[in-house]
Write a structure and sequence with these properties.
It comes from Corallococcus aberystwythensis. It is a single chain. The chain is an alpha+beta fold. The chain is built from 7 helices and 11 strands. α3 runs antiparallel to α5.
């Protein structure tokens, strides 16, 4: 596998000999389902790593249309290629038509802030696999990586405005921090004293001041 190491929310396609690189054994039923999914040319989502994992370990998730979630633990050589999370623009065609106006407003917000807006969750699964995942009450899980704290503030203000305008779908998702951690944008908008941060490995609470300090100082 060439290129950078896949990270959480990326998508990977496993090679033909992927099962030889399992780091943790799979139950027979899980192996059958994962093998069938892979043979249909469909990808797996990269999950959060565990604290004891080595650099060449990779945790993958497979969420089936019936909402059953399967977990795989493989070595990096199992991966044939990988892709980043799909952007909202890419996934829009896979979304229900009723979501279109809300997604267009999210795309416009990203353009105004010069931010790439990606998606994960059910819409991303539907887009990447071609299998129906989105249900009437599904959320749209958005992913942002602002470079400045002022952009975070503008982003939160914009997302709350878009949410008020469009009640047909709930906008959820995460803001990525410069150190690789991720926080719920809805929780961050509440400005709590402490907020739960999902890191590349493990998760822990951080203060709002600590999160602000991760960004470069602004004039």
């Amino acid at each position: 596998m060439a290129g950078e190491r896949p990270v959480r929310h990326d998508w990977v396609y496993l090679g033909t000999g992927w099962a030889e690189h399992l780091r943790s054994p799979l139950l027979p039923d899980v192996l059958v389902r994962a093998t069938a999914w892979r043979e249909q040319g469909r990808p797996f989502a990269v999950s959060r790593q565990d604290l004891p994992d080595q650099e060449d370990d990779l945790r993958l998730g497979l969420t089936l249309p019936d909402r059953r979630h399967l977990s795989l633990h493989v070595a990096l050589p199992a991966v044939e290629r990988h892709l980043p999370p799909p952007t909202v623009q890419e996934a829009r065609a896979s979304a229900p038509p009723a979501w279109g106006p809300a997604l267009d407003d999210v795309i416009a917000l990203g353009t105004a802030l010069d931010l790439t807006v990606s998606v994960f969750g059910s819409l991303a699964w539907q887009h990447r696999s071609g299998v129906p995942f989105v249900r009437p009450l599904s959320d749209v899980d958005l992913l942002f990586a602002p470079a400045r704290w002022s952009d975070v503030e503008r982003l939160l203000f914009g997302l709350e405005a878009v949410s008020r305008r469009h009640s047909v779908v709930r906008l959820d998702g995460e803001v990525l921090m410069p150190d690789g951690g991720a926080v719920s944008w809805r929780e961050l908008a509440l400005e709590p004293e402490r907020i739960w941060v999902t890191g590349p490995r493990g998760a822990s609470p951080r203060t709002l001041r600590e999160l602000r300090a991760l960004f470069p100082a602004e004039p």
